[in-house]
Amino acid sequence: MNEMSAPDRNPVNLTEIREAEEDVGSNPSDNPTMGDIINRRFSRRGFLGGSLAVAAIGSTVSPLALMIADEARAEGMSAFSFDEVEAGVDETHHVAEGYDADVLLRWGDKVFADSPDFDPMNQTPESQMRQFGYNNDYIGFVPLDDVGDHGLLLVNHEYTNAELMFPGFAAVVTETVEKDGVATEVTKVKTGEFTRDIVDIEMAAHGGTVIEIRKQDGKWTPVLDGGMNRRLHLGTEMMISGPAAGHDRLRTTADPSGTRVFGTLNNCAGGVTPWGTWLMAEENFHGYFIGELPEGHAEVANYQRYGVPRGWYNWGAHHDRFDISRTPNEPNRFGWVVEVDPMDPNSVPRKRTALGRTKHEGAESVVNKDGRVVFYCGDDERFDYVYKFVTAASYNPDDRAANMDLLDDGTLYVARFNEDGTLDWLPLTHGEGPLTGENGFASQADVVIEARRAGDLLGATKMDRPEDVQPNAMTGKVYCMLTNNTRRKEGDENAANPRANNAFGHIIEINETDGDFTSTKSTWEILLKCGDPSVAEVGATFSSATSKDGWFGMPDNCAIDADGRLWVSTDGNSAKKTGRADGLWAVDTEGEARATSKLFFRVPVGAEMCGPLFDPKGETVFLAVQHPGDEGLATFEQPATRWPDFSQDMPVRPSVVTVTKQGGGKIGMG
Ligand code: FEO
Ligand code: CA
Ligand code: CA
Ligand code: CA
Predict the structure, then answer these.
(1) CA 278, CA 266: separation in Å to the nearest integer?
(2) Torsion sign over Cα 197, 657, 635, 183
(3) Is 381 in the pocket of ligand 1 (CB under 6 A)?
(4) pLDDT by residue (tens digit) across 113-141?
(5) Which ligand has an atom closest to residue 266 CA?
(6) N or C: which end of the chain has fewer CB within 10 A?
(7) Which has the closest alpha carbon to 519: 428, 417, 388, 421?
(8) 478 pLDDT exceeds 90?
(9) Atom 3 in ligand 1: residue holding the nearest Cα
(10) 109 lines ligand 1 (CB under 6 A)
């Protein structure tokens, strides 16, 4: 064990560290809060749930609530039809009865016909570059036939858990820690030395995978000799385009042009564009840098606003570009949305700086009725903002090549959620309002590089960790997942983030005016405040038809299926926090059933639910089970589960799962 290794993992595991770090937030702006405003925008059903909850305080769920839930379901108001999974936590996954959940791709699986077999005891960077990466997150699908049974699966590999990946690397130790003169025994996972080899395997396990898949006899399988199969990682050459390309602040000794960068990291959620390219959102890039900026360096305030350097990883010990004392501008080359053309395995991915530099959660899009394309992005940190980007030019459905640079030119907006239920989309345009040289914005390049500070000056609304933001083309509505924010204090609430100590998060529904997604004045309301509706203090607003299994906390990613229905996946539920594992929930948004939720799939212990993606026919849902086994004092030797192989020879493995209905048919339809 090496005491000096950079990522000090005092909290017992990496997930807890990340959670604790995200807790801090780094928004110092004094954008207005409205402490005395209480959100009164309950739907009727939501309010009913709230009053029921008062009656049920102290019990898990009241008999009255159960009775009403049964009645509501009997009325058949929900747009979903399936037998709900029982909430809970154990070593494996569970899916609704009548459905099959099959593991499609696991960490270490071959991506190419000639990839080496996975050998967890003898990993190398070279083998990892040919195998499926770690911690699958976003999943995209690009069809290769008219039927939808053949296509390219696009998968982000967000980050690595070295303590679960490498044999003999981490151990559970008990140490005496002295604090304020009191000695306390602390038991924790202690990691070993981050050697060059370990770091290079970590870098190869990040990025993404393009892999051809085919459905035969109702089951999906990877096509290993698919001509478009590809692994992207930290060694993949990429270009930087848009307003910040070539700017001084992006130039380094290795790249004096400021337009070429190797790799992408912490790719969380993402999107597929209408023209079939893949967007990979770079999220917590701050965690990959170590060192100190040279004295008096111009980027001090910029890096503070993004939490750089955070030192979760020790890459900088072996690669100068991740040490800001040696390569001060490198952090300006991350935090972007990366566009990849999956149809050409030799294409050079592009970091599209016009969409701004934040901790991007996703980049889901919709073609507006006038042909322009609108992208929605959350900046996942406590007290940060929601953004949208509107292309300047229109999408051309008949000429794919004509769309390839649409993302370089357009308007980036940040959201201000007003207390009267209106929403202003404020343009982050150089020269407008406060975004001028006087405030340190010499050009649009400065605006996108410091998108957060631009949002501060415009008076954007500080949100409770905005994650996936998903437009619904069928309704003109947009769903925004707010995971949680336990740092929001009483008095700091605002109408759109109405709960202090918001442990369970909420979902906002934006109604873009007249179905025009480019609208700059829209309306919003809270669809759902999450948490246990039977505990009054929680203030959850699930409908009364929601069962004891149906409620959830910490909404994170989401998807709209082929029938325009909303599905929500979660990050952070556990036995301790909510008595349930993370999973995929079906959430009604329309009519009397609005805010009714049902559990469809749940992950094994320690995992978070990512993905979710429905195929164009709505007959398959692709799910990413991320960091399974990462619970408590988990190591390679002693994970909290050995899912999905359940073999002593195999570590626990993050995997992509396909869910299909037995005998075929649409997911969640009767
Ligand atoms: Fe990668 Fe915001 O979760
Ligand atoms: Ca996530
Ligand atoms: Ca999504
Ligand atoms: Ca999350």
Answers:
(1) 15
(2) positive
(3) no
(4) 999 999 999 999 999 999 999 999 999 99
(5) 1
(6) C
(7) 388
(8) yes
(9) 268
(10) no
Q: Is the pLDDT of residue 97 over 60?
A: yes
**What pLDDT sits at residue 179?**
85
pLDDT given for residue 67 in this prediction? 53
Least confident of 57-66, 221-230, 363-372: 57-66
**Among residues 233, 139, 169, 210, which one has the least CA distance to residue 7?**
169
CB 331 within 8 A of CB 311: no
Ligand 1 pocket, residue 608 CB under 6 Å:
no
Closest-approaching ligand to the CA atom of 380: 1
Closest atom, ligand 1, to C-alpha of 557: 3
Q: Write phi, then psi, for 329 (nearest 5 degrees).
A: -90, -5
Cα separation, 9 vs 26, in Å, equals 21
- Whole-number Å distance, alpha carbon 107 to ligand 3 midpoint, is 22
Determine the distance separating the centroid of ligand 1 and the alpha carbon of 366, expressed in angstroms: 22
Residues 6+ apart with CB under 8 A from 344: 228
Atom of ligand 1 nearest to the CA of 571: 3
Tokens at 656, concatenated: 């992509």
Residue 9: partners with Cβ closer than 8 Å, 6 or more residues away: 17, 163, 188, 189, 190, 191
Q: How far apart are CA 165 and CA 194, in angstroms?
A: 12
Ligand 1 neighbour 582 (Cβ under 6 A): no
Rounded CA separation 390/43 (Å): 31
